[in-house]
Amino acid sequence: QRRVREAVVSTQSTGLENLADEDINTFLSAIVSEKIQELEASYCVEVAEDGFTLEPHSVGYIASYYYLSHKTVKMFVDTLTPASSLNGILELLCDVTEYDEMPVRHNEDKVNKEMGDTLPIRLPANSFDSPHTKVHLLLQAHFSRQSMPMADYVTDLKSVHDQAIRILQAMLDISADSGWLKTSLSIMHLVKMIIQGCWLKDDPLLQLPHLQPHNLPLFYEHLPSCSTFPEVVLAHTRRQDKLRTLLEVDFQEREVADIFRALYHLPQLRVSHQIVGTELLDKTYVPQDAPGGGTWFPVHADKEYSIDVKLTLHKSAAGKSSHKSGGRHTRPRFNKPVDETWWVGPRGG
Asked: What is the helix (H) or strand (E) element at residue 18, kind and residue range?
């Protein structure tokens, strides 16, 4: 009897006043029809010609796979373009339905305004009580290595991190499905920014634990022939003693060990390729050296060739595979473990 009473109260609260079988069937049919229309408007499904069969679209599969609201993927489809900017993609991420419930507590609109005055991307002055503006500010502060104004904001940033990667992965799937390379690359960059806690323009060395901008001269000014991140990685392999001595100037022994561990586990890829279908090549042609140690081969118009590209994940100098680390990112400023992820795609000239 209690369950019956609860059911009656529940149905009455939704507008169903009569519990006759026909009325219940009509009521439920109306709800189902309404939700199907919403999913159709969000590009997730399509009703077949028979009027009963639902045919899922790729956008619907994406929303289901990543546990996202249909409203979110609809916004992606409606907003993304072949040339969406990084800032535009960041704004789109912050505006998703999944962040509707980000708390903006009493007087936090004032705190948000103070944060906004110190961050590089300016936001509308009348939006500081919005949960989506707060998400934007939290991510900007994360990229800028700015301290949070209070402990609640640290917790809120963790909540943003908990969802951000899967939301961006869904966005990337939609962009890639449309064949938009520039937009897809920008989404990948934003994923990297969130995991590593830095802006795209920042020096890659800042991805290492404990490093701050004022530490960079230790590498670039005092290590001979080190002007890029890969050269620093190579110095770690070949000149560990020199690098350790330099780091000990600014870092404690434990911090130096953390930096070395991160350098040790950085993945190292070698890319090679060859033309498949050598029977189509000119047999009388003598290969010529090409820049970068490669070789020129002639190809001819109106003939089809294939290129076989091989990616090799190299072992570290100590002879142990990079994946021995568990295949995890070095992510000192991200609160969740992240598996190594690789995107492979063609890029036009």
From this structure: none
Contact 160, 148 (CB under 8 A): no
* Pairing mode, strands 54-56 and 294-296: unpaired
* Global pTM exceeds 0.85: no
Local mean pLDDT, 10-residue blocks, the chain (349 residues): 50 63 78 88 89 89 96 97 97 98 96 96 96 98 95 96 96 95 96 94 90 86 77 80 87 92 83 71 65 70 81 60 51 77 70
Q: Which residues, listed in sequence order, are joined to residue 311 by a DSSP beta bridge?
A: 271
Evaluate whether 140 touches 119 at the Cβ level (below 8 Å).
yes
SS3 48: coil
| Inter-residue contact 170 to 62 (CB < 8 Å) | yes
Q: Within the chain, where are the H helices?
A: 2-13, 21-41, 58-65, 70-79, 86-94, 108-116, 131-143, 151-177, 181-196, 217-220, 229-238, 240-247, 253-264
Alpha-carbon distance of 43 to 20, in angstroms, equals 35
- Taking alpha carbons only, the member of 116, 164, 146, 135 closest to residue 335 is 164
Cβ–Cβ under 8 Å, residues 168 and 187: yes
Strand partners for 55: 46
CA distances from 256 to 109, 203, 236, 240 (A): 40, 19, 12, 11
